[in-house]
Amino acid sequence: MLTLTSDFGSPYPAAMKGVVLRRTDARLVDIAHDLPRQDVRAAAFWCRETLPYFPPAVHLVVVDPGVGTDRDAVVVRVGGHAIVAPDNGVALPAARRIAAEADIAVECFRYEYADPASSTFHGRDVFAPAAAAVHEVGVDAVESLDAIAPLESVAPDDAAGAVVDCRFPEAEVTAGAASGEVLVVDDFGNAITNVPGSFLDGREGGTLSVNGTEAAVVRAFADVDAGERLVTVGSHGFVECDVNRGRGADAFGLAPGDEVRLTEA
Amino acid sequence: MLTLTSDFGSPYPAAMKGVVLRRTDARLVDIAHDLPRQDVRAAAFWCRETLPYFPPAVHLVVVDPGVGTDRDAVVVRVGGHAIVAPDNGVALPAARRIAAEADIAVECFRYEYADPASSTFHGRDVFAPAAAAVHEVGVDAVESLDAIAPLESVAPDDAAGAVVDCRFPEAEVTAGAASGEVLVVDDFGNAITNVPGSFLDGREGGTLSVNGTEAAVVRAFADVDAGERLVTVGSHGFVECDVNRGRGADAFGLAPGDEVRLTEA
Amino acid sequence: MLTLTSDFGSPYPAAMKGVVLRRTDARLVDIAHDLPRQDVRAAAFWCRETLPYFPPAVHLVVVDPGVGTDRDAVVVRVGGHAIVAPDNGVALPAARRIAAEADIAVECFRYEYADPASSTFHGRDVFAPAAAAVHEVGVDAVESLDAIAPLESVAPDDAAGAVVDCRFPEAEVTAGAASGEVLVVDDFGNAITNVPGSFLDGREGGTLSVNGTEAAVVRAFADVDAGERLVTVGSHGFVECDVNRGRGADAFGLAPGDEVRLTEA
Fold first, then answer.
1. Using CA atoms, how far apart are residues C199 and B139, in angstroms rounded to an integer?
2. Where is the S-adenosyl-l-methionine hydroxide adenosyltransferase N-terminal domain (chains A, B, C) (predicted)?
């Protein structure tokens, strides 16, 4: 199985699929190709929220604002999963999530690649062939891939040779308030913060202030009328600022990166 | 085979796919994930217009404005097809279409589910595991699924214990006029009404008034100039109000639910 | 393997997939379904830039402004590939590219089809069944498909019985200037011209004027600051007018079909 994630829109992902399918008959599964453009943090977030649900697979992830520069390429292996991506941090949060759930280690392999056909589409010319090669040789045998390029094992926490990481900021939570930020706005317009869902424990049925705007704390969208603001624990385990049948980000005036302060109303 | 339909946009459907693929190696086919948000009637329409074209399959359909409330979950079985969906009517029109084409019966199974991980993403936590389980046990053996939850067979027309249904309004058609409404506006901007296509029999080459706006009655879009309004029988068998290379809904000022009166011009 | 390309948006492609999957268990791969509406030249361009990357396959391509008129249907065979499409030229550029890379010939088969169920959705009622039939009989045996319809082999260059072709205009290039046009604007907003990338040979690090607007000639997007204009060789081998992390078409004021004149600044 080989999953594909990018910010390429359409139809560039198809070229990647063709390249992959010339080299392997892996089952292909699209994760998303409309991730926010060149936004490594958002892509890392969505990979963390989707890839761990999959059975062991090779995951091709290309959100790559540094395409054509001298940034490296990495294979991040965790259990039976291998994430093939640019060395910009996009792979690490998903890998750490998988590692934590199975209590296993994350291994990073940085590799060089021959000068590709294009300097603007490494998804097609660098990462797709690499992902196909990993799928063909098997995730357990990534080390044997010197046919592609010299692979170097790099500890993710090795300061000297470390691969690039992406860490989400942590919210500050006290008994009565939480300060965090919006990590992403999803397709529904829900503003997903980094405040742990546990902050809402015992508050269901009450009201919270979000940067001064009051909203009901509920379990289900339909617990408030259509068009009404609400605060709930989203499917990622974080506090979300939403609107039933509407766009929470608009109603609360929130965008990715914005500060969010939740206080008792 | 397992098809997926939702209003989730991207990348939430990927989490559903991961959940399914951990439990079964069914071939996955996306129907659509950009259906109008929380619009059960539109989803029911599009399921009716797509699912019957498939060979026997499990169909996971999640357009679910009541997510997290106490609405039930259903498996609707018709021939070798099983539609796994919230109990909000979204599955019934497609099932009735399949039943009518093969002259077979529709069976509904309502089931309870354990409290899921999230109250906002039952697609991932309730319906995807259920669809995978139905695929694994086989559509013919849905009754044996008490491992998941107690299944209760409910006749769709049993007023007492009936599952929720969704019925499209019927147009009123006389010899010289038809009164109906817009069921959906498709991606091309075509305003698809509930007026049967047979209303246009013998009118090709003529003109009709749509709420007072005249339009040619034609067989093909290209029968009028680019930008010109037209009325034709769409691929669903209903009268559509379209524009060649344009958006009929805009040109006629029509939105889903709007009344449409077709009269001789 | 059977790929699908259209301008149908969603969810009409699903009906085509159902029709195909009732007739064959071919692996399905989506190329794109959001191509510019009714734009045969753009579709021909994107088919040329994606289909040749695939292993031998049947390619169902339906961008079809003449749907319901008397335009013909074609199967274009090149090596192990067969493109099933309306006879409007959409298939030829991809076929020629595949032929050129493998030094093989392009063969065209025009066929008639029985009057289909709808006059507006030949993707579902004409081309999907034809593509499935080609897949089932095998690309090498297209001639045997008189079960579907009488097939007629037509040389693409035979003026008398020629199938419809689509040829991209060629740019005029001199030592110091190039005059061409924008072929397409991609999802990133990059304005892709027909000026061969070789025009930028030796100019990297310099500046060019695009219709009077200056821009750096670079190798990678990130070679200029975010928001800055640039000119580079795109992944298709043509000169692109782009903006790092922005939309080049907007910044340069370019749309498909616009004239582009590149001169030394």
1. 61
2. 2-136
